[in-house]
Prior knowledge:
Layout: H1 8-18, H2 30-45, E1 57-64, E2 67-77, E3 80-89, E4 98-104, H3 112-115, H4 122-131, H5 135-140, E5 145-149, H6 168-179, H7 183-199, E6 204-214, H8 216-227, E7 233-237, H9 243-249, H10 268-272, E8 280-285, H11 293-309, E9 316-321, H12 332-339
Parallel strand pairs: 4-5, 4-6, 6-7, 7-8, 8-9
Antiparallel strand pairs: 1-2, 2-3, 3-5
Amino acid sequence: MANRNFSLWTYFMERGAEIRPSLAYQGGDVREWQPRLLTKVQELLGDFPPSVPLEAETIWKVEENGLIKEKIVFNSEPFASIPALVIRGAELSVDRKHPGLLCLHGHGPFGKDSVAGVRSTQAHRDIIQLYNYDYAVQFARQGYITITPDFRNFGERSDGDLYPGRDSCNVHFIRGLLMGINLITLNIWDIMKTMDYFMGRPEVDENRIGAIGLSFGGTMVLHSAGLDSRIKAAGIVCALTTYEEYAIKMGNFCGSQFIPGIYQYADLADLAGLIAPRPLLIENGVFDDGFPIEASLKAQEQLKRIYQAAGAENRLEIDLFEGAHQFSGRKAFSFFEKWL
């Protein structure tokens, strides 16, 4: 009797187990490998939106508890604007330049607010405590100027619960595919435009800008730093894993977080390898049930091979911490102090 299968889940498990990404790093000169993968990544991303003048404006500015926070809005393309929060220590002189840090938020209800330490409700306070989430504030207290934008479909850019019981990222992802538009491409573009704005601030040293993000924010750091060399040092927090584990087996992802078709060519560690030889920090919690540590360790080993081949093993740091899905910070502050 012929072998039959009616399960789509089983189908994808079996197909996924057979995939061997054709452009994954397998040894040799990293400088020759990176352009081949980068070309394929750019091809799969598709066209970025047309650029427009930023037309940035400050909406409000407050000083509290030794910090100055500014609400900024600027345009990224003809059909989209970005709200962001900029934070610096009140004692920082604006007459000289300081290191800057993009602090990117994860997939959650409050977008940039959590990372920027907004505690306006108990729900805001709870999520900050759960994930040690206010790293834009923590870094600002260490002397950095930080900027935290909202990604599309989050924070002020959310349209609310349009599709009850569904992840609206997935609905927008399918809608975008219909139009030949990838959500991750739009969000990468927004990070690039945020960099444009940030580098234009007179108190920010354009040669000392890094990026860090938790979860979805870490995924966006991983992709954006590989494409934009203006990011001089990067921190990927609780996001480095394998596609087979978190996407195919677990389904712990959404339509904002991946490049369509990419797993035919590369895994996440290979994409992170596009950052080499620039400094890179990886944080993974051993009790992170959304990103099982076994898969993260496998991805770390691949990334180590790439950095070693690039002659930059001393620029890759790993914080394997006894925690769950959260910002550790044990090595992050010394890492960015060293490299920025």
